[in-house]
Amino acid sequence: MSNGNYEWIPFYEEFADSLLKYKNNRKELIDKIYKCYDENNIQIATLEGDGASKSIFPFDIDPFTVFALFNKKISDDNRIKLVNIFKQEFSLSSNAPEHFDGIPLVNNLSATFYYFSDSRGDKDIDNLWGVFEAALEISKKPNEIAINKFMSYYDNVLKQKGIKWKITMGLFWIRPNKFINLDATNRSFLEEESHLSDTVANKIKNLKNPPKAIEYLQLCEDVKSVLSSYSFNYKTFSELSHEAYTQKDVNDSDLPVDGLGDEDVKTTKYWIYSPGERANMWDEFYEKGIMAIGWEIGDLTKFKSKEEISKALQDYYNDNKPHKNEVHCLWQFAHDIQVGDIIFVKRGRNDIVGRGIVTSGYKFNKGQYYSHSRTVQWIDKGIWSMKKNWDERTKSLPLKTLTEFTMYTHILNQIKDLFEEEDVESMKEYPSYLAEDFLNEVYIGKDEYFTLLNLLKNKKNLIIQGAPGVGKTFLAKRLAYSIMGLKDVDRCMMIQFHQSYSYEDFIMGFRPSKEGFELKHGSFYNFCKKAEEDDENDYFFIIDEINRGNISKIFGELFMLIENDKRGDKNKIRLVYSDELFFIPKNVYIIGLMNTADRSLAMIDYALRRRFAFFDLKPGFSSEGFIQYQKEINSSEFDNLIENIKTLNEEIKKDESLGEGFAIGHSYFANLNSEDIDEKLNYIVNHEIIPLLNEYWFDEPEKVEQWSNQLRSVIN
């Protein structure tokens, strides 16, 4: 028996039954949903658009989209709040759940089961109601008429835009004991023969696209039969789904990860890959659901460095060449690609022929020519020519077998634009991050944290200013994470202002193209559009070195709109370079970072000060967190050095030409451990602190020498 909590099942099933009565009265259903949100002062997601990126009040809705309102990537607190609101509004007798083990969640940016009215078919929402009604009917009293009705509607729904595997998630929500969830996590779990059976595993592996109705219903019966016949820890579809997500969490914990400087945050990477010369292995790899590369040098996990791979390739080719490209490709294939990464398949220099999601780690297949492989859920297959899309920056696709191009956003966006459905199903799960985590990591007190929180929440624009090394960047990201409740790097963006940064970089402007010049959107414009589509969640835009840019020039006409009371679609303004009416969403928060010790910059103007709240971040040597950190290091030299730095900061504070804004921050001494502490302290003092003092007191060499000698004496 699984150790999960499935108290959600009775509530979900009763809620599904209650929705059926609105099949022919959808306006009342929409009104009830909006009433739930309005009366509880909650921002509802965009449920309908007018074809011009504008949110409008919906005139139709399907029952699966209603379920998606609380089965997407929001915090459990918000999920619990919503189910309690719906329980009351729809007069449900089942207890509102507080645990949601095994429930698949849709992507926040594609949480409706239909496209907006300008892009969907006339019968799309009717078909969703049809399959919903038939699913409930066959779960209660299966009969031939109901099953045929289900199959007809299900197959029609599969043809609709934006559905694919999502329909199996919706069916699982409404009847989790009848219909199996086939999201990416569950499919990856079922592909392993040891998790169920080789028969089921082979069926799942052969699914290149969502199964048609007859195949899906048979798969549900096959899995149910295996679950009842063998002694697995999971006996139901919900328990199986919970086990799949639990296994995924365990497997992901061993993967190399990165993202905005946080090692426990996994971000999606994008790769261009060639399956053989001119993609000659593409059809075979597509059918097998894999990506693979050659070079028969053995299991790549046995090599501890690129140098070892290079030596193996020299033995393989019997030469002394470095083979840099091959070495890099093999190392990346084995170590850098992650589960959840997106693969674009290329043929030649101009054609994209497929797209998929990586679903497994590296595998070595001894004796095969293409012996290095990973399983991939292939989403698209066809031919998409890039030839017409190239600009002055990009003339063709890379020649190499494997290339990561996550950071080359202009190429990535050009390739994404080829596909009708830009977003493929995400497999990312972000680590939880709460106020307690913030206070454990950031060296400020609890009162200061809540002051920061209230300033940002109330003003929506905050500038954190402080001396070098007080941890402004570190704090800003973690402040955002603590408000979100998780380290969701997709909702947090950082840029850096400089003297050449302009409105064209920030909002929009004309850029050279193959045909001459074309209008390109800037970082803040794109970020606001992304936040607008996901208006139930907060988004954080962090600007490092905010006082290095010409603020008025960069923000342009949007300078007024960043004010708290000027947010939202009721405060649109026409942009300079286009006829578009633009607004800054209410869920966007701006955090600026400013170094108070930078003499080259003038004070920021009053217009900016009026629109931002300001917080002075001071060195945290006396905070509870830093004191505990000192105890863990357990070094008398470290303790003595910190006491001397505190005294030095007092002298800097009293200096009329410097002041508190030039104090030495605690970040210089962060992330140390007891090993080699003497060597590390020697480096910090001689190569970081003393050069800083030389800059501070360039006209007082005696003072620099005095403090240099004093600090060196402590560590020597």
TrEMBL record:
InterPro entries: AAA+_ATPase, ATPase_dyneun-rel_AAA, Methyl-DNA_Rec/Restrict_Enz, P-loop_NTPase
GO molecular function annotation: ATP binding; ATP hydrolysis activity
Enzyme class: hydrolase
Name of the protein: 5-methylcytosine-specific restriction enzyme B
Domain of life: Archaea
Organism this protein belongs to: Methanobrevibacter woesei
Stretches of the chain forming a coiled coil according to its record: 631-658
Keywords annotated in UniProt: Coiled coil, Hydrolase
Signal sequence range: none
Domain AAA+ ATPase: 458-618
EC number(s) recorded for this UniProt protein: 3.1.21.-
